[in-house]
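Annotated sample (chain length 181).
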Amino acid sequence: MAAPGWGGKGGKCGTGTGMPMGFGQQMWQNAAPEVRAKMDERAKLNIDLRAELRKDIPNKAKARDIQEKIQKLNREIETAQFEEILKDPSKFKTQARGPRHEISPENRAMMDEIRKLHSEIRAEIGKEVPDKAKIRDLHAKIRKIKNDREDARLEEMLKNPEAFRNSQGYGKGYRKAPVQQ
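Output written by the structure step:
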């Protein structure tokens, strides 16, 4: 059986008739080169942030600085994608959803607010002549809510880094896994 996104065309490697690639990969492929560069930089910064938080005593100032850079790149990437949608509303599609996790009441309220703002954006984009200023304002509100959530999560990680040490990446037990030879 071929791996996702890799078809078995006559024993040759490469993309083929296998499973379609994930949303993030497709988004990266369809992005402009300058947006791709920002996505790559953001990925490297996320690795740096995880490495900093995995230290026994993380440098909080450095972690906050990295988080601020990530948020700035998130805003720039999202704004570029958003402006692309404003140029051609036919590109606006709902995104695939990943696995469900338990959500706190505060996060649920923020997510509900984001959902409400997204529906307002969809309604405005669906109009014959959308009000781009209103759409940009709604988008700015969504970005502020997301930034607040990210800041709160980072502060929670900084309070108790041990609880988040292996939360992303290799998962539980990675450090204690036997080395395969």
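Annotation: DSSP finds six helices and no strands in the chain.
Annotation: The longest helix spans residues 60-87.
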